[in-house]
């Protein structure tokens, strides 16, 4: 028996569409993001879930509520599942960050684990809080299926940790809005990635 984690990235926001760094900024789902969440809810409505967990930011929490509604289950919001805190970079595009923080951005791309974003976090801090939160979920639900809705950076760090990756290369893992990944844990130390970045429930134009 094992715990199966259905790991979901939230639906699209306007800032996603504009390629702006969001981080802890509490940006709502766009109409497209709402439809992406509904499409995934239709895909998952026949599954049996023990619980639903989510980041406490509304783009993730509202995605999770849409997924949970057909199952009649509440969503437990966890601050630890938030995206990386991008500090002074939040609301900016990559080009705007390059223009204002060129040295810091170059250092962060090279060593995100230990480079502190101005006013924000290091990736190592994100890894610590996300893996601790998900490990607690796995230990709380040693059998059955659980949905965890969070953010692209969180999913990359968690999958990278399970696979034993160099997390300075975590950006090589592509994670689309409203995608589904699945991790199975017979124990925390024996996590297996069985599905990654699956968007087959989305119409081509909703990717």
Automatic annotation (TrEMBL):
Residues involved in substrate binding: 9-16, 59
Residue numbers marked as site, Transition state stabilizer: 151
Gene Ontology molecular function terms on file: alpha-ribazole phosphatase activity
InterPro entries: His_Pase_superF_clade-1, His_PPase_superfam, PG/BPGM_mutase_AS, PGM_Phosphatase, Ribazole_CobC
SMART domains reported in the protein's UniProt record: PGAM
Top class in the EC scheme: hydrolase
Keywords in alphabetical order: Glycolysis, Isomerase
Catalytic residues in the record: 10, 83
Family matches, as Pfam families: His_Phos_1
One of the GO biological process terms: cobalamin biosynthetic process
Name this protein carries in UniProt: Alpha-ribazole phosphatase
């Amino acid at each position: 028996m094992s715990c199966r984690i259905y790991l979901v990235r939230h639906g699209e926001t306007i800032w996603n569409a504009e390629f702006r760094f969001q981080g802890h900024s509490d940006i709502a789902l766009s109409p497209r993001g709402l439809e992406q969440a509904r499409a995934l809810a239709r895909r998952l409505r026949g599954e049996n879930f023990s619980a639903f967990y989510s980041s406490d930011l509304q783009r993730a929490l509202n995605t999770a509520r849409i997924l949970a509604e057909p199952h009649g289950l509440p969503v437990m919001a966890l601050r630890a599942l938030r995206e990386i805190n991008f500090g002074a970079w939040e609301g900016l595009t990559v080009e705007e960050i390059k223009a204002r923080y060129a040295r810091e951005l170059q250092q962060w791309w090279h060593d995100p684990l230990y480079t502190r974003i101005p006013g924000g976090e290091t990736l190592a801090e994100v890894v610590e809080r996300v893996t601790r939160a998900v490990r607690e979920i796995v230990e709380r639900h040693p059998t059955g299926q659980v949905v965890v809705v969070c953010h692209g950076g969180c999913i990359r760090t968690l999958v990278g940790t399970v696979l034993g990756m160099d997390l300075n290369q975590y950006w090589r893992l592509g994670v689309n809005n409203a995608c589904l990944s699945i991790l199975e844990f017979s124990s925390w130390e024996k996590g297996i990635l069985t599905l990654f970045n699956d968007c087959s429930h989305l119409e081509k134009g909703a990717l």
